[in-house]
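Researcher: Following up on the earlier apo prediction. This time include the ligand. It's adenosine-5'-triphosphate, with the SMILES given after the sequence.
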Amino acid sequence: MVTEATEEASPQSEPIILPIARGVGLHKYYGTGETRVVALDGIDVAFARGRLTAIMGPSGSGKSTLMHCMAGLDRPDEGTVYIEDQPISTFSQAALTKLRRTQIGFVFQSFNLIPTLTAEENILLPLTLARADVDRDWFDLIVDVVGLRDRLTHRPDELSGGSSSASRALVH
Ligand SMILES: Nc1ncnc2c1ncn2[C@@H]1O[C@H](COP(=O)(O)OP(=O)(O)OP(=O)(O)O)[C@@H](O)[C@H]1O
Ligand SMILES: [Mg+2]
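Model: Understood. Below is the ligand-bound prediction.
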């Protein structure tokens, strides 16, 4: 797959900004024997801080696998993922859980909303789990920006695909 996410070299006058996330020599395999799939085959990639980066490729080319490894949801079989220069591929499960709760947001291809919770409860779930305070002004602002105000008491099976996506995107 193609993973061209690096920036061009900065002119000397500009400070060099380190990428926020890097993958070095990433390999990921699924299955064994005849059913073995090489999902990532030696991927080197860097994500610039403060930029939107799109990863494109055919279905089955490894985009989700790459993102799961980059976000610490899964481990590469070979290679290292760095977030802010920390080698997260070596982190314990407890350290990865904390990293995902505090530093990484993830919108899954299937939204993974909790079916028994309302849209508002789903949005606030990471804060609830972390026993962190809710910034109500910020919550109100982003809920209005994405147009979820009238849907906050609805459960996921009562949300449209777009509203589910918005709920999931607001989780972090
Ligand atoms: N849990 C798994 N077990 C076995 N094979 C898997 C698993 N997850 C992914 N694969 C295989 O790994 C390859 C990469 O899959 P991946 O889901 O990363 O692709 P993708 O680029 O995200 O595809 P899509 O565009 O369809 O979402 C595919 O061949 C897929 O069948
Ligand atoms: Mg995918």
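Model: DSSP finds five helices and four strands in the chain.
Researcher: Noted. I'll compare it with the apo version next.
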